[in-house]
Here is the input.
Amino acid sequence: MIYRWLTCFSLPLAMIAANVSGRVELVNQRGVKQKRADGVAVWLEPVQGRPALPPGKLHVITQKNKRFLPHVSVVPVGTTVDLPNFDPIFHNAFSNFAGQPFDTGLYPPGGTFKVRFQRDGVVRVFCNIHSTMSAVIVVVPSPWHTSSGAAGEFQIDGVPPGEYTVKFWHERATEATLRGLDRRVTAGDGPLQLPAVVINEAGFIPSPQANKYGRAYTPPPGTGNLYGRGKK
Ligand SMILES: [Cu+2]
Here is the structure.
């Protein structure tokens, strides 16, 4: 009886939520289409009003083999990001971006550190002692978000009917390029397939990764083992 009651009331809810899907293509500085197009952040912002955000979400970015995984994360405002260290060496995580600076300090194998993000923006994260390590956390004011797969495909489920702006972010695109990618869509009660979106990397100038003091990576003398220097 309870099951029938739930079925009656949950069906209409399922029918009004749409999914929005599409594909992005990356074109490099020389105008060549890239084989992989993963790691592009995609999210929907309502044209009017601000959506309710899920409270207290937890997102994990691991430190493993001197890498942050995943490299690109897309999370709603209010998310806590956990940064466990699965390597046999010390790590750090720091950021000076998006008005949400943090610095975990050095922490040992098996350690972890949590950071909560209270506002939207692009938070670039680095390790102060390993120049191979970087991650990006795209904090969005929306519960409807994803990142593209290897072929550039994406799908956002559970979108209520309404007018939205679809937004994109890619780490090798200029702000002007990204603003030009905004597009208005209307979600109804069924699937919405968007035309392919081409993201051109032209004009993007990469900057060399620096430590938290803005300097080149040079471990202090005598700290090779602690920092895992020389190990892959
Ligand atoms: Cu590290």
Residues 1-14 have pLDDT under 50 and may be disordered. The chain has one domain: 18-212. The longest helix spans residues 2-16. Residues 93 and 127 are 5 Å apart (CA to CA).
